[in-house]
Every structure is written in C-alpha cells, then in structure tokens.
Amino acid sequence: MKEKLELLKLLADETRLDILNILLKEDSYVEKIACELSLTPATICYHLKKMEAAGVVNCSRSQFYMIYSLNREIFDKPLYELIKKDGETVDAEEKYKKGVLSGFFKYGRLTQIPTQRKKREIVLREIAKDFKAGEKYAEVEVNEIIHKYHEDHCTIRREMIAFGIMEREKEVYWLK
Amino acid sequence: MKEKLELLKLLADETRLDILNILLKEDSYVEKIACELSLTPATICYHLKKMEAAGVVNCSRSQFYMIYSLNREIFDKPLYELIKKDGETVDAEEKYKKGVLSGFFKYGRLTQIPTQRKKREIVLREIAKDFKAGEKYAEVEVNEIIHKYHEDHCTIRREMIAFGIMEREKEVYWLK
DNA sequence: ATAGTGTTTCGATGATTTTCTAATCATTCA
DNA sequence: TGAATGATTAGAAAATCATCGAAACACTAT
C-alpha cells in the first residue's frame, strides 16, 4: 500500500521526529517549535504541512497561532503492519502470466523471444506497457523504447503489429 | 536515539520494503530477488548490506549463494517506540544552560551578546562547537563561522580568546 | 485603515541517496 | 588450475528532499 510507504518516509527524518517529540509533550505552534529546534519557521511549516497532509498531525487556528497537535492513534500499530504488503489476490491467469514474464525477463530485459505464440503475446504486451495510449510514435522512437528490452527491435516491432497490439500508418506508430 | 532514526530510514524505501516482503515469505538470495524485482544484483546487494548492518536481516553463505533471512523480532515493536526519544536526563546545570541559550539564540542565531560574564561564556562555548578540535583556522575562516551566529564577529572572536576557549598565534586560530 | 505578529508559499541551493555499469572478489566444480 | 557463477565494491549519473531567504498572506489590535 502506498500510504504505508508515505508514512514511513515521513517518520524517517530527524527534524520531523524532533517535532513529533515536542508535540508528544504538548501542543505547540510553528514559531515556538522553530525556536526550540533552531530552525526557521519556514522549515517547520514545511514539515508540519507535510505531516498534516498525511494525517499525522492536526492543526487549528487560535488567535495569532496555528496550534498543531498529534494524531496519536497512528502510532499504536506495530511496525509489522507497516512493512507487510496486503492484498495480493492473484487469480490463476495472473499467476501464469507472472510465471511466463519472470521466465523470459531478467532485470527488466527480455532474455529471449518466446516461440510459443501465447507466451510471445504475453511478453509483447508487457513491453507495450512502456508506450502511452493515444500517443503517436516515430519509428526511431519505437525502436528506442523496444531496445531497452531487447536487441532485436525489428522483430519485436513487427510482431507488435502482427498481434494487433500496435498499429502503423506510414512512419507513425501507436498503441492498440 | 540514533539507531531508531536509522531503522526508520531503512524501512522508508520502496525497494527495501519489496525485499522485506519477499523475505517475509521465504529466505532468498541476491540474484533471485534482483530478478523478481527487475533490478540489478548490485542494487539489491546495496540494500541488503545496508539492512544487514542495521540488524534487520542476516545472511549466511550456502554454496554459490548468500542466503538472506529476516530478523523478525525487530518488527514487533509498536511505532510509538520508534518515535519517542528516550532518556532526557538533564541535571540542573544543563537546564540552566539550556535556558540561557534559548534566551539568546533564535533560529540558531545569537540575538544579543550577553553582558553577564557567566552567560557570555555559555553562549561563546555554544558557538565554539562549530569549530573542530585540533584544526587550524585562518582569521577569515573564524570570522566566517562566527558570522553565521552574529554580525559582530570581531567582538566574539576577541572574547573567545579572552575566555581561553580559543588560542591564536599570528594569524592562526584553534580550539582550546 | 494600518501596523504588528505569526504563517505559508516560492524559488534556489546543497546534501543525501538510489541506481546503474564495470570491475573485482569468492566459491564451486571440472 | 582455471572456468563458471554469484556477490560485492567503486565510481558516476540522476532523483529526491531539507533548508533557507524573501515575499505574500491572514489575523489582531490600535
């Protein structure tokens, strides 16, 4: 899950930990925190706004001040909860595709063009993900992108057309 | 505590989370993980070594392979444990100094040079922390560093000598 | 209104960190 | 021993991110 990574990134900063520790003792405001940590209000504000967006702190205005306070529930979870990826619900079809892909790709490059038609299509569609739908590409551009995956861009480009994954008109190529 | 921040920094990276999730399922080795994540072995190695240094994973050789495994105990703690600064044991003397410093510094700059001798010394010693012990400084360099704290670097430089915090010989200055 | 105080945004800078390629190292097996 | 395979290191390029000063903004009180 994306938010988990975001939360971890937020916590993995010395200044933000300092701020959280201040707020752990009592609610406070920008200027005061800035003074305690010997940083400028601009910097503190930057961090607080970031944490507010992630729901780690809340803020409310009181006279001159923006009073920031902790959202303590967040910290109850064990670490385990934050690192574990949830919901890997993969059906059989998905699983088969993954198997084919991990068999033919190595470090993101295609090691060999599959001879089996079905597997070849899976591999080609994977490469096709690197093209944007609706965009027009010159032949050089197509080659360039394919080249990231395999030396023989000619064959792959031709097969893309053959499988109806891409279309061409004159020297222009596009997806679908 | 320093290690807590280090641990959080380690966890706050997408690639490392991916690696941890693979290891959560079963022990594995560099090349295999690299293939699964479409990254080079060099990159995976870089991350694993980092995590090993922090005690998050362990490794042992088996034939060709370096088998990496999780150190699962680490993940039991609640988040709260990782953000809370522990052991703020400050004695009276420390407290007094902190009071003086927070009175005269604002955002890391000296707002005014204290007239009281005792307070002046505290403030000067704080600024002195920005110099490295054993290093020699030219006068320009000394001024430059002091200038980060206060306009009047001449007075402060002179006082540094007067209090025996720094010493000078000709145009060279050094700490203590 | 307008002066004063605290907050936020913007643009620039510098530091840190991830990733890669290429080269080197370590281990196994013929 | 040397060929093969996997792991690690070094160095460089690229991306991300914290920080600051200055300017703009919001609220309060005279």
Describe the structure.
Two copies of one chain form a homodimer. By secondary structure, chain A is an alpha+beta fold. Chain A has nine helices and eight strands. Chain A folds into two domains: 2-81, Winged helix-like DNA-binding domain superfamily/Winged helix DNA-binding domain (Arc Repressor Mutant, subunit A); 92-175, no CATH class. In chain A, the strands form three sheets. In chain A, strands 1-3-2 form a three-stranded antiparallel beta sheet. A three-stranded antiparallel beta sheet of chain A has the order 6-8-7. Chain A is elongated. The first copy, chain A, binds a DNA duplex (30 and 30 nucleotides) through helix 4.
Element order, helices and strands of chain A? HHEHHEEHHEEHEHHEE
pLDDT < 50 stretches of chain A: none
Strand order of the largest sheet of chain A: 1-3-2
Distance between the termini of chain A: 30 Å
- Our count of helices of chain A gives 9
Rounded mean pLDDT of chain A is 87
Number of strands of chain A: 8
**What oligomeric arrangement do these chains adopt?**
homodimer
Summarize the main sheet of chain A: 3 strands, antiparallel
